[in-house]
Each structure stands twice: as C-alpha cells, then as structure tokens.
Design a protein that fits this description.
Elements lengths: L2 H28 L6 H14 L4 H6 L1 H14 L10 H36 L40 E4 L7 E4 L8 E5 L4 E11 L2 E7 L4 E5 L9 E4 L1
Antiparallel strand pairs: 1-4, 1-7, 2-3, 4-5, 5-6
C-alpha cells in the first residue's frame, strides 16, 4: 500500500465517520416529529452500515427497506470499487481474479505432476493401517443451554384496530364512498395520520380496501399499491 492509497483510505474513513455523526445528529432533531420518506431512507442506510436491522420498519416502510437494501449491496462490493472509477474497477477486478485462478490451477497441476512422479518412483508395498481408538473427552463443567428468544408480536390490520398512513411521499390517501377506484372520493387522510378501522377487508379492482375513520371523516382506503408499497400500517 503506497502513500496515495493510504491517504485515500484515511480520507474515506474520516468521511464515513463525519457522515455517520451528521446522520445521528439529524435523527436526534427529527425524533420529535414523524419521520418523512427521506428520513426513513437515511435511517435504513444507517442501520445497514451498523448491521442493525429494524424488522418492523423493514416490513412496513418502503423507503426504509429501499435504503437498507441499497446500502447492503454497496457494502458487499469489492474494496477496489470504492477507490477507482466503475469501468476501471471492473477491469482490474476481473484481471486480478483471472491471475489468481491461473496461479491456483498452475500450482495444482505442478503438485499433481510431483505426486505422479513420486508414485511412479516408489516401489509397490503392502501397507497395513491400524485404527487406534481416541479417548473421549469429558467436559469439566456442564454446557449451558441457551435461553429461547421470544418471537416479536406481529401486529396486523383488523376491525376496531388502528393504522397509520405512510409511504405516500407527502400526498394524501384517498377515502372513497365504497371499495373500488370508480367510487367517489369523500375524504383525504394525511401522511402520518392515525386512523381507526371500521370494516374490511374487501377486494376490488385488485386492491384490498378498509373502511377507516380519521380526523376529516370516514371512507374506504386501499391497504397498499399494486407494487407492494404499504399505505396503511397496523399500530397498537
């Protein structure tokens, strides 16, 4: 490792530390209000870098899941892709892998040649192998049995339960007069609003509908998009 590589590595480590500190500072300020889609994305990236997955956020928040998955894929890349441009990194990585394979195959071939030569030069002899029983080790202390970890309680949408509007990117979730896209819109539920579930579920126009009650009124709202983005997240 030469001087330029060492300096680049130090600068990169320092930048990561400053960026992580800045994100924690932003989260400490944003913890007093509901997190936006951008905050959820940054939270997912930071959790991936720390190796701490939040199961509830990953299951119900699209932007958190997107940030977490992208960060994990970026962290699994070879180290030289972070120091060199994309095309050069791929070429150098491929060349390195090819050279390594050639060296390994050449070493195996040479070892096989040496082994064959040794076998041809050695006289044929009958070898008797005697199996020797190995003593059994007895532990001095009993092995502790690990305690079972309790499984987390999964909260689902249900009648007389509550849900939170999320993943709408700042737009309102429409509440219609009946299940279906052709029914007129009666009310709009803001992102982050807590609503109460009155009826459902009903399948119409390939969407799952729930009749919910919010601050502005009552209407039928879709549970999630056709792409799997969840709009109604169950809460306690």
């Amino acid at each position: 490792m030469n001087v330029h590589t060492t300096v680049a590595w130090c600068v990169r480590q320092w930048s990561c530390m400053v960026e992580a500190w800045h994100k924690r500072w932003r989260w400490s300020r944003a913890s007093r209000k509901p997190m936006s889609s951008e905050d959820m994305y940054e939270r997912g990236v930071a959790d991936a870098e720390r190796g701490e997955l939040h199961p509830f956020y990953y299951q119900h928040y699209y932007h958190y899941r997107r940030g977490y998955d992208q960060a994990r894929r970026r962290m699994r890349r070879p180290f030289w892709t972070t120091l060199l441009p994309g095309r050069h990194a791929v070429l150098i990585g491929g060349a390195t892998l090819t050279i390594a394979l050639i060296v390994i195959i050449g070493g195996i071939w040479r070892n096989n040649e040496k082994t064959d030569a040794a076998l041809l030069a050695m006289p044929a002899t009958d070898t008797v192998v005697t199996a020797t029983a190995r003593p059994t080790r007895t532990p001095l202390f009993p092995t502790a049995t690990p305690e079972a970890t309790p499984e987390p309680v999964v909260v689902t949408l249900r009648v007389n339960g509550f849900a939170q509007v999320a993943n709408t990117e700042g737009r309102a979730l429409r509440g219609r007069a009946a299940p279906g896209l052709k029914a007129p819109v009666r009310v709009a539920f803001a992102e982050g609003e807590r609503v109460r579930i009155l009826e459902g579920p009903v399948l119409a126009d390939q969407y799952i509908w729930w009749r919910v009650e919010g601050r502005a009124g009552t209407g039928w709202a879709a549970q999630q998009s056709l792409e799997g983005v969840v709009w109604l997240i169950p809460v306690e």
